[in-house]
């Protein structure tokens, strides 16, 4: 289910305008990262792009395909990744446009998941049994 070396290299070449791409195996699939943020996943050499409320309108064409999902407790859990249409692989500029929209969604998701800098600074760590608490 992970991306083949050839498909990964194809994506790396096509999406080079975005920045530094890396690939990491995750959950039997391959995560596609740009500068440390996951913008897509690949399963069976099929590209799925990150979707959120900010880019669903752009990706309406992809809504006709089943989203990337996994099964947990007998239920299908949809992930926030929609299948990129095959035609994009013949239209490199549009593929990059879709990837940029997916990357923007990935940044929005990452911003929601990480606490605000002020919250991080205000957090206190509990001291271990052999340590004094530092404030």
From TrEMBL:
Segments forming domain TfoX N-terminal: 13-106
InterPro entries per the UniProt record, alphabetical: TfoX-like, TfoX_N
SUPFAM superfamilies for this protein: YgaC/TfoX-N like
Biased composition annotated in UniProt, kind: Low complexity: 110-120
Domain of life from the UniProt record: Bacteria
Region feature (Disordered): 110-135
The protein, known as: TfoX/Sxy family protein
